[in-house]
Structure formats: structure tokens, C-alpha cells
Amino acid sequence: MGLKEKLIRKGKYIWELPKETIEGQRVPVILYLSDALFELLEEDALRQAANAATLPGVEKAIYVMPDVHVGYGFPVGGVMATNTETGIISPGSIGYDINCGVRLIATNLKAVDVAPRIKEIMNNMLKNVPAGVGSTSEIKLSKSQMKEVLVKGAGWAVEHGFGFPEDLQHIEGFGALPNADPEKASHEAYERGSDELGTVGSGNHFVEVQAVEQIYEPEIAEKLGIWEGQVMVMVHSGSRGFGHQVCTDYLRVALKVRDKYKIKLPDPQLACMPFNSPEGQAYFKAMNAAANYAFANRQILGFKAANTVRKTLGISWEEFGYRLIYDHAHNIGKVEKHEVDGKKVEVIVHRKGATRAFPPYNPEVPPAYREVGQPVIIPGDMGRASFLLVGQTNSMKMSFGTACHGAGRVMSRRQAKKYVKEVGLEKVIGNLVVVARGKGTIMEEIPQAYKDVTEVVRVIDELGIAKAVARLKPLGTLKG
DNA sequence: ATGTAC
């Protein structure tokens, strides 16, 4: 009998795997799924969440978002909070792509004016924005410049002419997380990171020109300065080879110290270290450095993408109306205080394929958004909708202040390619303008390979974790 | 996600 049969329905969209279902399981696993998404839940993803619930110092529950799928050790769409005094930190539960995240830039432009020129815009995007596996940047960083990037994050990019000082007010952690120590990253990480700053990467990463297709909450939309027919620029990328190397290095460290700290691992991919140990702290500081690299990366990418649109149209920045709505991580570990059994507890919240979604009046929400809540950007798969939400109060009670992150795969890359070859690419992606170095990524990233992001967002919205404000549709996409 | 297997 699989674990899926042992799930107990607690509500329309709430399922629970009670604690002690598997040996050593300290806390329940709570899943947020509609009937349709429940059908797509993989046994292995549930098993990974249950495994994590056995780790030392895990608090309250492991939460699983509606876009869940199997990941390395811990599912994508998983949330785990561990006590900072008694708990562990787990690199696999944050993910290989540290601070993979999303950025949304608003403009004053109308989609009706931009759409006729989208091919020209996207062809310039392909020339100006490096994308694809192993692509490199024209920015070459010395070791000392790298160290600055790892501490200053997006601020470093602004200092070097990529974007505007106001941007920093609208980034999670102001684009530079504290506790970043460049000395805790390896030589290999530096090597890989030195020529990848300002590059998109591959897989589901993209730079997209979008239009606001529908507003669900007019009052909130007005406060955020968004309107139907408005052109937006969205960036989805992370810390590239640098973050990947940090994860690789510290997974190795974690396996090495597993006996020293007597940690019982149900799966070696969950290798972890006590948060309050030299090894745990070293990973935490290297992870924050990688997060800052990613913030700098998206700062550069967003500015370059916006500038490409602006220059193609031959307009000034004033006419363009560049304004950063928000930028946040969806693969990260954050030290936060949360209520557990009526008491405030300091935890490290592992969010893997999961987005912070703080409610209105939380001090971490920028002043401009204080009354509406933290913007939550949910990128769709290529060709389908993306969404803008705002965090709501239930997130603090239901998921350590966390919402979903996107669609989540249902078709493997191989399956997707086969499907495209059978059906034909034109039929699969319709009128969308997609540019990429090779056709491989486009075939792997077709919308049909993903769960329906609309359904995922509906669950989060109806649970009161985050409120859907607007739907965005792609006009043109740059893939890796 | 990723110098797509060290």
C-alpha cells in the first residue's frame, strides 16, 4: 500500500498524511490539492515530503503546494521549517538552483502598440540577452568583483548601471541577503560564476514580454499600478552554475558529517547538517551568497530585457515607464519567526519551488505594498498564462507564509519532445513568438508538459494563502 | 536546475 492511500481528506483542498505514518515521522505532511491535482500527485513526491518530516527539529508540518512534483530529495513545491537551535539545514530541500526566482517589470506601454513589433523585439532579445546551457556573459568578473556581487546582490548591478536605485526597494530582502560570506564558496563556484552573470540559463528559465490580460482585483491592481492591456517584462532565472556548485559542494559536506552528528537519513539526497554547526553555518552563508548572485543576475537580465524593448521601439525611459513591481526567490532558505503551538519560534524555512507570500502589514512587505500584501509572481509555462498575486493572512497559519511557484511538470522532457514530433511544433505553441538558440529547449518546455497553472493558482487563491490580482499572457518568449 | 554523467 502506497502512502497516497493513507492520505486523509481534511477539506476541499486539504489533505494530511498523519505524523508517524512512516517510521520516525515527527510531524504531519499537509498537502494543498484540488481533485484534479490530487490525481497528478506522484507517490514518490509524497514519500519525499514524508521523509523530510523525519529530520531533526522539523516544526509543525511539511507543507506541499499544488504544483508539487518529485525533486532531488525533497519535492519541488515543498515547504519545511526547522528550528534554528535544534534543527538541521538541508541543501537538497532548498534546491540546486539557489534563489531561482522571478522578476516582474511594469511599463507604460500598451500591448496593442507593442504586439505588431514583437518579432523584431524578440530577435533583438536573442542578440542582447545570453540564454542557453553554458552561455556566457560579456561581464567578466575577477575574484574580488565576484565577492562584491555575492555581498551586494542586486545593488552591485544597480551600481554598475543595470537598473535604478528604486528597484532595490521592490526585491525580497532588498536584493541583498545578510549572512552571505563569499569565503564559504569554493574555487569551482567562483570559476563557474565569473562569466555567467546576466545570463538566462536553460530549462524553464526565460525572459518574456507579456500583456496584462485580465484584472481580478481592480482596487489592488490600481495600488500596484497595473491595468488591462499593459505591457510587462518577466524574468525567470537563478544563480546559474555558481549556485549549482554551492549545492553540490555542501551536499558532499553534509554526507561527510552525517555520522559525526548522528543524523538518521531516510534518503541520502536529504543529507543535512545541524543549522547551529560550523558546517551548517558555512552552507547557510554560501547559500546566501548564491542568492545574492541570483538577485544580481535578475537585476541585469531585467534591465537588459527592458532596454531591448525600449531601444527597439526607439523611445526614452520616461516613455517606457520602467517600474519594478517585485522580484522574489522560489528556491531558498530564510530565517524567520513563525507561530507554532501558540509560541513564536525561530525557524529556517526551506522553500523549494515555493514562494514567500507575506500578508498585508508584515514588516518585510515594502511600504508601497503594505496594505495589499507582498506581490507573488507565478510564472506560467511557455505560452500559457502567468499570474500576479498578493500574500494573504492564511499563508502565515497554513504554510509558514508561503505560496506556490508555477505549474510543475507532468510530462518528462523526453515525452515532451516525442509529443512535439508527433503533433508538430506550430500546432503546439500556436501564435506565440518564441526565440531560442536551439529547438530542443522549446520542445521540452511546451505548455502541454506542465500542469495547468490556472488550477494551481485557483487552489492557492481559494485557500486564502494569496489572492490572484491579474493574469498575464505572453507576447514573446526568449528561452535557453 | 546543471560545463544535462566525475
UniProtKB/TrEMBL annotation:
Reaction equations catalysed: a 3'-end 2',3'-cyclophospho-ribonucleotide-RNA + a 5'-end dephospho-ribonucleoside-RNA + GTP + H2O = a ribonucleotidyl-ribonucleotide-RNA + GMP + diphosphate + H(+); a 3'-end 3'-phospho-ribonucleotide-RNA + a 5'-end dephospho-ribonucleoside-RNA + GTP = a ribonucleotidyl-ribonucleotide-RNA + GMP + diphosphate
Domain of life of the source: Bacteria
Pfam families reported for this sequence: RtcB
Cofactor needs: Mn(2+)
UniProt-annotated binding residues for Mn(2+) 2: H236, H330
One example of a Gene Ontology biological process annotation: RNA repair
Entry keyword annotation includes Transcription: no
Protein known as: tRNA-splicing ligase RtcB
Record gene name: rtcB
